[in-house]
Design a protein that fits this description.
342 residues, alpha/beta, Aspartate Aminotransferase, domain 1, Aspartate Aminotransferase, domain 2, 2 domains, 7-stranded mixed sheet, 4-stranded antiparallel sheet, 13 helices, 16% strand, globular
Length: 342
């Protein structure tokens, strides 16, 4: 195994980690700091983060028939799901997909199965998915919606067919839901094995490390047996609750990012040798001329812009780079650096 490496972005325009580039207005910051004054750091946090959980319920318009479990980022929730499985269990996800599904499965000695996406469209290969489900009977299936690193939304019909065929849990990872305007939360009451996982990181709160999963109370109860006590600290609980109560601000920022995404997508596809793939997330995957991705990546970095080199993963990601949508001036700097690198 290899450790999950995070690139040093000091002194660079940071467009590599799918973060919201916008900070908060000064008046909002002052209100937040006032809220933090009431934090009792000498006491342990609420172990169930009940107030924050209720705010999350309201923001997602959840009915009382579903429970919510909070985690230290989505990573902890993925870890809890996998720790709950027997050592002989299989875990299935499309490939390429979010690296932590495989990283944590391998770490726990589980049987991880990566099912290649369809070339060109990056959609689910439904026959291959159904065949793998039938043969291996996975205990958990992860489907990122939109998918990371490809940025696309899988076919809704293919996802529903996968849920129906699975005897184990199906987790729809909606980390990029704010940019996609698509969700499976409304389908939770139709499938007992369906769970929806979200995070506030991409919304603009990456520094808080807060994720959550929604689903059948009987399943959430089992995950709570494994969850470490006090996993959501007091500062995160207060800050996330405050932020989610200012939804309008994040909606405005999300609209800006989506508008810039369209501009960057158009500019990328106007460059010779570049193929940008449609995205429903806050990043764009694009293909470079053959065997030049790493060189182009380094050239862009030397010009002060950090993006993500995906080409080393091979397969469908050969010759591919990924860029996070930043502020307009950051996106212009990226396009200029890419143009000089071709």
């Amino acid at each position: 195994m290899a450790a999950y490496k995070v690139a040093d972005a000091q002194g660079l325009i940071k467009l590599d980690a799918m973060e919201n580039p916008y900070n908060w207005p000064e008046d909002i910051k002052k209100e937040w700091l006032e809220a933090l004054k009431e934090c009792q750091l000498n006491r342990y946090p609420d172990p169930e983060a009940r107030h924050l959980a209720q705010t999350i319920r309201r923001s997602n318009q959840l009915s009382d028939q579903f429970d919510v479990l909070l985690g230290n980022g989505s990573d902890e929730i993925i870890q809890l799901l996998l720790m709950a499985l027997p050592a002989t269990a299989s875990v299935l996800a499309p490939a390429p997909g979010f690296v932590m599904y495989k990283q944590l499965s391998d770490c726990l000695g589980l049987n991880y199965l990566g099912i290649p996406l369809l070339a060109g469209t990056f959609d689910l290969d439904l026959p291959a998915m159904l065949a793998a489900i039938k043969q291996h009977q996975p205990s958990v299936i992860f489907l990122a919606y939109p998918n990371n690193p490809t940025g696309n939304l899988f076919s809704e019909t293919a996802i529903l067919d996968t849920i129906k065929a699975a005897k184990g849990l199906v987790v729809i990872d909606e980390a990029y839901a704010p940019f996609a305007h698509a969700s499976f939360i409304s389908a939770l009451d139709q499938y007992e094995n369906l769970l929806v996982m979200r995070t506030v990181s991409k919304l603009g709160l990456a520094g808080l490390r807060l994720g959550y999963i929604i689903g059948n109370p009987a399943i959430i109860e089992q995950l709570n047996k494994i969850r470490l006590p006090y996993n959501i600290n007091s500062l995160t609980q207060i800050s996330a609750d405050f932020a989610l109560s200012n939804k309008t601000l994040f909606d405005q920022q999300t609209q800006k990012i989506c508008a810039e995404r369209a501009v960057v997508f158009k500019q990328l596809n106007e460059l010779d040798g570049i193929t940008a793939y449609p995205s429903a997330a806050n990043f764009i995957l694009f293909r470079t001329p053959e065997n030049r991705a790493s060189g182009i990546f380094l050239s862009i970095k030397e010009q002060g812009v950090l993006i993500k080199d995906m080409s080393s993963q091979g397969g469908l990601l050969s010759d591919c780079l990924r860029v996070t949508i930043g502020k307009p001036e950051e996106n212009l700097a990226f396009i200029a650096a890419l143009r000089k690198s071709l």
